[in-house]
Amino acid sequence: MNVEDVVEWANNSIFDKTGENLTPLQEAILTGVWQRQKYPQIAKDFNCSQSHVKKEAAKLWEKLREELGEDLNKFNFRSKVEKKHRVDQASQSGHCLLQFDNVNIGGQFIQTIKDLQPRSRSTPDTPQNNAPERIIDLTDAPELIDYYDRASEESTLKQWILEAHTRLITIYGLSEIGKSAIALKLIEEIQTQFDYIIWKSLNNTPTLSTLQTELKQTFSQSQPTPLPTILEYFRTSRCLVILDDVQNLFQIGELAGQYLPGYEDYSKFFKQTATSSHQSCLILLSWEKSQEIAQLEAENRATQTLHLKGLGEKAREIFKEKGLTHEEKWSDLITLYQGHPSWLNIIASTILELFDGNVSPFLAEGNNIYLGDIEPLLETHLERLSESEKKVSHWLAHQNEPVDISQKPTDSQLSQSEIWQAIQSLARRGLVEKVQKEARSSRFQINPVFKEYIKSPSNPINKKQL
Question: Quick check: helix, strand or coil at residue 171?
């Protein structure tokens, strides 16, 4: 379908129900959303306010929900229309390929699709009525409110899953950096490639046995004969399982990725998923990368890790949506706060509150980093650190240049091995980065925003001595 077909279909659908045609602005909204534009850009192109675009869009989605489902919004509009088009084409040709129902749950949906044709992996003589239902269960998934373009990372993930058939993927990064958002966007793009898509949150720290029982309950909706293990489901069907908040399996006050007592069997499950032969994919979303994941990645091509970082210049979209001024200063703001979308949203709100949206006076003191409402988010990370990580963080925070860790501080209470181990753990939490100063010379520095917080006199870590 092209965008003209979409506009014509939407106009006919609304006219049949209301006797009214689409307004020019509603046509512009449909065109823009179909082309992956955001409301600020649509408003700019149409020469009207963003609030007016949002108001008209809300009316538009309400009119189209009878056709496309109660959970319709700007993020899933295109995929829903494309899916409806495929179904309509199949019905017209006399072959009903898909039957589906969407149920809105907590801003997301559970989608059950009965596929009456065999999967691409099935043999040609597989009876059509033996094909399993397609189940998409996003009950535990957060609501995707805003999504900022991460085309490069999306392309990498799709290549790993669809072409390289990677069995275990870890997406790790700081809290609220966008791990869940990119996973939800990925589902939207590749959902037709799987028999099952299941999202499970580990926020309440379920045991592995509890998690496996819940997964089997979902699998059993289209499998009349239960299978003995999750891996058997992974072998017999194409499954995409996302485990969110994996950091809750790890101990606080220890090096990154040390499992809580009684949760060590998760490590075995992850390793089995990576090393066993099957056609499925398990995605882990976490604040930190565990030691065994690093080992599996080094040993096994079916394991990949994506360290999700800031948005870079794409974060300018946040400032457009907030209506900030002094656009020439936006890049400085992005650099200062590492392109972190949540931090930038908080700071943008602060600039609106204190400076009426004017960026220049906020940046008047140069590279000084104002933390404000970001501090609680930083503290949740720092309170997880081991004692050696706290000492090394304090040391790094008080260095003016990236550090050559082959040079042990003369007054250090830690051994060289302990310092290296702490640096490695901090890097696996996304708090420390390696900087390539010259050929074959690597140095390390702490995230500048965390550096500012650690140096604050009120922060307890500042009292720790290396």
Answer: strand
